[in-house]
Amino acid sequence: MRRFKASVLILLCVLLTSLAAPAQKKKNGAAKPATPRIVVEPIDTDALKNLLTQQRQQPLLVNFWATFCDPCRDEFPDLVKIDKEYRPQSLEFVTVSLDDMADIKTSVPEFLHSMKATMPAYLLNASDPEPAINVVDPAWRGDLPATYLYNEKGEIVYKHIGRVKPEELRNAIEKLVKKGE
Amino acid sequence: MKTRNLSILLALVFVIAGVAYANEVPGPPAIGSTIEDFTLPDANGLDRSLKSLAGPNGTVLLFVSVQCPVSNAYNERMEKLAQDYKAKGIAVVGINSNVAENADAVRGHAAENKLSFPILKDSGNKIADKLGASVTPEAYFLDAKNKLLYHGRIDNSRNAAQVESSDLRNALDAALGGKPIEKAEAKAFGCSIKRG
Q1: Is A129 strand, coil or helix?
Q2: Does residue B161 belong to the interface with chain A, where contact is any CB pair within 8 Å?
Q3: What is the complex's ipTM, to 2 decimals?
């Protein structure tokens, strides 16, 4: 009788464990929806120039950064918030990494993924960054991070070199985005 | 009276804000200006003046870092530069202005990477501010009288295999040959100097 009771108890434990495992897996899956994998596209100096100067339907915010740049990494959570806040109001936001091309499938998308960043991401594909820096802004010395806001005509209306000041950037964006859209 | 006080206060706020912004990365001296002598401790704690380290034909000041991957990508090139131009009378002097990298770290990094040129520790980033250095690596070439002849990058690429324009070497060779430097400024690219 005692042996029968023990067998029933073991059977119950096995049954409960097998039922609980998929439920736990499902619960974990539901709690953490996967952030879409970031694909970082290469961009050369000419393509960057086109991106920045073309006329468009909405204002464009561009952040130049690199994984080796501490203030760039520090400011990223603020930028992700700003993207989420103003994308529904027709702000186009792209990031341009100045990391090495070798990092395009590794550290750059990995960092963006960890930040839950979903804006289009580029990596400058130029052995010489100077022409690209001059295309962006001849007055920019190439220090990172650098953040530029362009209006619909492709004109720079705001720039900040160094860690972004979120409220200052928000104020600049507010002047451009179409309220309520 | 109250309005006047408020105006003065507002003006002061704007001036202070402007100065604070401007102080984030001061502008570099103009090409042709003379750099005053300065003294900084080396990685062993010994005070070294620019005058005592200068080469008979000039000095290259290189702002460097222990941790920056861009600066580290240049370690071999910087050492070779120092060796190549030592015989030509130009001294290479490194300066580390990063607040988070102390003299021990600078000394260990130099030994590990076989950097034979002196590296000075610029605590409080006074010399970085004076020269308007913003990134690592960033180079300044001074002639024998400390006149600034070149400022900017070492070359065009952190990847040694992709170097197409050796701007710093071109400047040194031109000066040694008594020729004008065609490109006296080229934007340096690297990690921001972490100021204290």
Answers
A1: helix
A2: no
A3: 0.78
